[in-house]
Predict the structure.
Amino acid sequence: ADGVGNCKCPDDCKTMAGPAPVSCEQKVGALPSVAFKAGSSKLSDDAKSVLASAASRVRNNPGCQIVVVGYCAGDKREQQMSWDRVNAIITYMVDKEGISQDRFIFNYGQQGGDCNTVDLRAAVDGETGPNRVDPPHPNLRKN
């Protein structure tokens, strides 16, 4: 009489709600790791081609953020090298591939990875972080 129905939901109505949302990890897929020469933060030509192919997947998913993870934090020099490498990748992706700086999460000096490698991955839902970080030990940077 008041216009509000009180029918119970049939058992199959939960499946009728539609497909579950697709996460950025599923949309972007596995992103590459970038290897650097020991003691260097310069991107090789191979690294640039790997980043170019990753950039197309990132561009095709504008709502997804990308985490750039550098490893090693044993001492100040390792921390700075990790920062330099993460910065080199983000700078390349912004300047050469045209991806907005706001799409990246800057993450350096992590434990558990190869010191000469930087990993890229899609951020999980709700993951946040800075897209720019000041160098930890700028006096240790190589020119």
About this structure: The longest helix spans residues 76-95. The two ends are 79 Å apart (CA to CA).
